[in-house]
Amino acid sequence: MQTMKGFPNEDRVKHMRPLKKRGHLHLSRLLLGALVTLCCVVGFTVYSGLVWAATVTPRYEWYINTLIGDPTATEFTLGSTQDFAGLAELVNGTAILPDSTTPAPAVSFAGKTVKLSNNLNFADWDIVPIGGLGSTVFDGVFDGQGHSIDNFKIDVQSRTSYIGVFGRTGKNSEIKNLTIGSSASLTLGTPSSPISVSISNVGVLVGETEGSINNCANNGSLTIISNVNQTKTVVFPVMNVGGLAGSCLGDITNCTNGGATTNSGKITITATGLPDFAWGEQDAIVINIGGVVGCAGSPDGSIIGKVGSAPNIHGTISDCSNHGSMVISTPNQAGVDRFGQPAFVQSTNVGGIAGYVYNSSISNCYASGPISGVSDVGGIVGRV
Question: Mind listing the pLDDT tens digit for each residue in 262-294?
């Protein structure tokens, strides 16, 4: 039986991860003891646009001690920022447990419930997405019990998809009763260092869900700055972005984006890349952007029931609202497509609730936040 040892007692003990440059505000968090004094004098070195940024040190007592007491336990409770970080490492398959030097196998938490016992303030430290690393998913129930998580930034590391507090959640998953505070943020790229790879399935709460999201709210901000050009292999440089979820193959009910403060829930996307007019039938470089969810449903019909069975349509959005603003900017450049027709760089499928709805439904939803886009822009849905 494993014993518990080697765990830090303070919630503020951190370890370091490489992250895109954030600037001098993070110096005091990156360096300890004498190194602080030294680096205040000589500064710090930046390599390839990266600095060492700090994330919360994960703790696993809540998980291991519960299983020691009951190996068949199905309910776990998180009470600190370190516990929350431990959940991410366990799901992602990157957890180094006590008395071990190698990562433990990924834990999906299928058939299990993880509860949050109190509000968590991350004090502007970084968190790692839960699931979505390789084939990993969170497939259990996460019950915030009416609590909030706030004042954090999401460390996307090298991910280009499945980005959010929960990167990817499975068919059996449920995220419920959780609020993301207005001091939380998800930022991809800066004006001086825009992202240079295509991205998809990005949401502050969940990158992609195949399960359900119930009674949740996002008041955090989402910012994307991209300079990726459209090519024959990169059709849409920015795709499936939402305030709560980037892509939903499950169901979202009674959820809200924005409304806590003036700029809460705001989505800002600036794309300066250019299309390849020579081949493209599509001239959109930003597609499927929604206040609640970017893309709801499955374009390939895979969520519909099997032949001979009743239809099993998911991707449903009901009783949801968006109060956050959406600002999408693309270059104003015209060209001629391969058919000789005029084409323009643009964003498309932009909606106050959902950007694109396919093989799914949307009901009893409303949006009040201002929206800007170029093509297929709707107060509720951009395109169905």
Answer: 889 999 999 988 877 666 555 788 999 999 999
Q: pLDDT, tens digit, for every residue of 243-268?
A: 999 999 999 999 999 988 888 999 99
Residues 263, 27: Cα–Cα separation, whole Å: 27
Cα(177)–Cα(116) distance, rounded to whole angstroms? 10
The length of the chain is 384
> The pTM is what?
0.81
Three-state SS sequence of 305-336: CCCCCCCCCCCEEECCEECCCEEEECCCCEEE
Going by C-alpha positions, the residue among 100, 261, 116, 265 that lies closest to residue 180 is 265
- Cα angle for residues 264, 268, 272 (degrees, 5° grid): 170
By DSSP bridging, strand 50-56 and strand 14-20 are: antiparallel
Cβ pair 122, 83 in contact under 8 A: no
For the cut 60, the answer to whether the pLDDT of residue 306 exceeds it is: no
Secondary element (H or E) of residue 178: strand 174-180
Q: What pLDDT is attached to residue 27? A: 39
CA distance 110 to 85: 19
| Look-up of token digits 């399960």 | 211
- Range from 63-67, 158-162, 345-349, 373-377 that averages highest in pLDDT: 63-67
User: Per-residue DSSP letters for 71-139?
Assistant: TT--EEEE-SHHHHHHHHHHHHT----TT-SSPPPP---TT-EEEE-S-EEEEEEEE--BS-STT--B-
Specify whether the CB–CB gap between 316 and 372 falls below 8 A. no
Q: How many CB atoms lie within 10 A of CB 76?
A: 19
Phi-psi region of 355 (alpha: psi -120 to 50; beta: other; left: phi over 0): alpha
CA distance 109 to 96: 17
The predicted structure's pLDDT at residue 259: 84
| Tokens (6 digits) for 76 | 């776990």
Rounded distance between C-alpha atoms, residue 154 and residue 152, angstroms: 7
Helix (H, G, I), strand (E, B) or coil at 344: strand
Closest among 197, 251, 288, 231 to 365, alpha carbons compared: 251
| Whether 143 contacts 176, CB under 8 Å | yes
